[in-house]
Amino acid sequence: MRNKRIGVVGAIAAAALAFGVVAGVPARAADKEIVIWADETRGPNLDKLMSQKSDWVSGYTFKIVTWSSFTALKTAFDAATEKSGPDIVMAPNDWVATGAKAGKLAALTPSSKVKSQFTAGQLFDLSYKGKLYGLPVDVNNTGMIFNTKLVASAPKSFGDMVDLYISKKASLKAGLCVAGGGNSWGGLAVGTAMGAYPYKIAATGAVDSADPVNATTLAANVTKYLLGADGKSNGFFPASDAGCKENFLAGKVPYAIIGNWEWKDYLDKGFKMNLMPVPGVTSGTYAPGFGSVSGALLTTYAATHGVETGAKSALFNIFGSAVGARSYQAIEGRPAASKDGAKYSKTAAQKGFAAVAGASSIPQIGIILDGDKTSYWEAIGAFWTAVLVDGKSPTTEATKLAAIYKANLAKGLKDL
Amino acid sequence: MLVSIFRGKFAFALKIIALLLVNSILVMLAQQALASGEYAISIFLAVATLSINFVYLTKRSVPLKFFLPGLLFLLAFVVGPVLYTLAMSGFTYQTGNTLSKPESIIQLQKNAIQQDSNQTIFDVTIGKNGSNELGVIYFDSLTNEYAISTEKDRTVEPASTIVKNEYDIPSSSPNFEALTEVELAALDAQIPKLKFYYNDELYLGLEGFEAASIYEQTLKFDAASGDFKSLINSDIYRDNGRGNFANINNPEDILQPGWRTPIWFENYTKLFTDQRLRTPFIQVFLWTISFAGLSVLTTFALGLLLAIALNKAIRGRRFYRSILILPYAMPSVMSILIWGGMFDTDFGAINNLFGTHIAWFQNAAFARTAVIVVNLWLGFPYFYLVASGALQAIPAELSEAAAIDGASPRQIFNKITLPLLLKILSPLLIASFAFNFNNFNLIYLLTGGGPIAQLDGEIAGSTDILISYTYKIAFNQGNSNLGLASAISVLIFLLVASISLYGLKKSKVLDDFV
Predict the structure, then answer these.
(1) Range(s) for CATH 1.10.3720.10 in chain B?
(2) CATH class of segment(s) B270-512
């Protein structure tokens, strides 16, 4: 009986071991496979690109892993290990600083031919402490469109928009709202129109170290354009972006800021892509929004996986070449970052968004925006809530906001 | 037939098949963990496999046959994470300090290069020279000559001997033969480490398979002293004991990335000595105690009230019992999100119903009220169920005897029913307190911890509880601090354990088990 029991145990152990050895698969299926992680829009676009042409780098195959959202992609990338991490990640530019500091991103040096495809600002977007960590892929920005049934002609100043809203207030839910990108990212231009700059860019292209916000001017503009005589919100700009897209499409809001990834939704509803930057308070000027790039970033995992050189070549061949730009632009809806790619941006929307970014935008510098105690993302939302919802004094709140922006700029400049 | 399922040859066969499956899975996982370098996990899985086989194939310990699965899961998913969290709480583990020291040194060495002043890049072809040494052939635009650079030297090639490809890039010469694409792919792991000689100070580093840039090393690591030395200005960067190499002349000039380093109890002391952390920590702690206490009180009170009301035979009692369970049956995530919409300032059902325009989630008092109300909705069915069962367990004779002695219904409830109920339900009340102390889902989904007066520099929101506050510290977009978050998690564990033990001791429930 004892021998029989031992025999059974031995048989189980052997079977289990055999199964385990056979079934155990290594973490990466192919030695020369370049793994690219992307969000829910770029991932499928890259899949289409690879199905059309997969030999971007001879001797290498590509595997595209698509995540359900940028948040999911970020969570996964933050948790990635040497074994599980991607070789290239398609990411917004404000991941570069934290990724480089965390040792997850690897620097690369493109040839002058590849560099010439991009503007200095675009390359700066993907740089940290002077090193470039990827290639720009597409421009991330928003633009303002207006409902031609409510608005006869393009507004020349912020005041024109407010005046139109006041004249038609009874039939409208708001004057200008943010349909794409949220009030803090998509709605930056409303803040800068009032004078709430998180930072300014000097003519040289460098970040201006002077204080970006004049609290008095900001408070005065907010009082004049966004508040009524009773000191409460006049309803022109809601503190929340909830329902904006629906209200605009229903003809209840004349002006909306939309994202360059969703313009087809508006075309389908019969709206024209009369894209323009948000007008400034001075006639003929524009308020800058974020005009940054998303990029294909090289990770340090590529070296661990033994595909770093191939991954670099992949970046140059796909996103830094005319062939790659043409192929990718035929699929992608966003405006291309590269000059060759821009030639193949055929739709009015892509050209319109690119024009908005070119006319009036500032790069999204994560190292300044994330701040230390209070980030830009938290502060501007709190400001709009305090002034437009809670009815607090614009002067007091503008002073607090200015102090936060000043501290964030000082900290960010030290780290740039 | 049924007996044969649990005894006899059929049962034995089922046991063997089950063991086979479990062993296969555990061995496979152990092998993968070993291949990934996760030795602790691999050892644990191997020990688990052996222990499962020992327990279920021998008659050494029959009770262990019942306890072993739970024990293994407890070790894997409770004890293990607690120990790991405890360990991490003693480290600087934050953005910029997540690697190990050797990894950090490798990264720093790799990043410690800069291009020449002209930012020169050459189009190159990778291959081997006449001596079979790996090298690159290129046109040097700075010196207007064709050259081959290997790791040891650089030789000039006559222009007339150079063969170019279709892009007019030099690809071969009598002293140089290009590698094939297959050969290049095989060398990928080696290529990033190659430095081809340019001159005594500069070298060529490959950027992909077709370009090379002129670089100079800016930092050098001295393994003997463990310091980095700048080759530009001779500055020394030394381990500052906090996970970074810092300039000995300017401690704020640190090299990134850094590494995780033990700082022992500093994360704990920081919570009480750093005012930026102490003030919100105390505020959040007080609210967490209040929230957990109020949640238990309100859900228990409403649950008990309904249980007492439906303890009597009334018309439609079955129907009422069914609908009262519905909030408990629905996924809590859905309920919380729906309630979040109902509390919306402009479109919410609550404001529409009462004709108000309350900004529920922008005011601290209203936000806290909303949180308590939603938790009441989610929690009362549970206490209704347990109270119903507990009421059945109380002998009716006690109430009847008291009534005969002239006690009023209120006296009967206060002096007999409630004390007995509390004795029966106290472990559940303590468990509910512990659950609500860490009720992350509700806070995160409903209010996000807000409102937060960001403009006043607040870090924690009015409805943040310790666990949601810890989450923000751990996963802050700009600067996540997992070490500090681990320290707070350990404190939460100690707090909840202490409160639970105190409550159990007070209620003397554990006396029944001793």
Answers:
(1) 270-512
(2) mainly alpha
Is the Cβ pair B344, A242 closer than 8 Å? yes
Question: Given B107, B115, B121, which is nearest A300 (Cβ)?
Answer: B107
Q: Report CB contact under 8 Å: A19, B28.
A: yes
Mean of the per-residue pLDDT values of chain B? 90
How far apart are the C-alpha atoms of A292 and A364, rounded to whole Å? 5
- Cβ of A4: how many Cβ atoms within 10 Å? 8
Lowest mean pLDDT among A2-6, B64-68, B172-176: A2-6
Selection from B169, B247, B256 nearest residue B212 by Cα: B169
Residue B375's alpha-carbon distances to B295, B298, B300, B328, in angstroms, are 7, 9, 12, 11
Which residue bears the tokens 């970014």? A357
Residues 6+ away with beta carbon under 8 Å from A178: A142, A186, A187, A190, A241, A244, A256, A257
CA dihedral of B269, A78, A71, A375, whole degrees rounded to 10: 40
Residue that is written with structure tokens 């195959």 in the block: A61
Minimal C-alpha gap between B56 and chain A (Å): 10
Note whether B454 contacts A379, CB cutoff 8 Å: yes
The reply to whether B337 touches chain A by the CB within 8 Å rule is no
| CB < 8 Å to A308, chain B | 188-189, 191-192
For chain B positions 368-397, those within 8 Å of chain A (CB to CB) are none
Q: Are A197 and A186 in contact (CB under 8 A)?
A: no
Chain A residues touching B36 at Cβ < 8 A: 27, 81, 83
Size of chain B in residues: 514
Q: Which helix (H) or strand (E) holds A290?
A: strand A289-298
Q: Give the pLDDT confidence of B416-472 residue by residue, as tens digits.
A: 899 999 888 988 999 999 999 999 999 999 999 988 888 887 888 999 999 999 998
Predicted confidence (pLDDT) per residue in B220-237, tens digit = 999 999 999 999 889 999
How many CA atoms lie within 13 Å of A30's alpha carbon, on the beta-carbon side? Answer: 12
- Nearest-Cα distance to chain A for B117, in Å, is 13
- Token pair listed for B467: 């666990």
CB contact under 8 A, A12 and B104: no
Interface residue B206 vs chain A (CB under 8 A): yes
Q: Are A118 and A339 in contact (CB under 8 A)?
A: yes
Structure-token match 């209070």, residue found: A374
- Write out chain B residues lying below 8 Å of A110, CB-based: 121, 207, 211
Q: Which domains does chain A have, with CATH numbers?
A: 33-139+292-362 (3.40.190.10), 141-291+363-415 (3.40.190.10)
Give chain A positions within 8 Å (CB) of B453.
Answer: 382
DSSP state of B173: B
Spatial separation of the C-alpha atoms in residues A301 and A305, rounded to whole Å: 6
Contact yes or no for B20 and A102 at CB 8 A: no
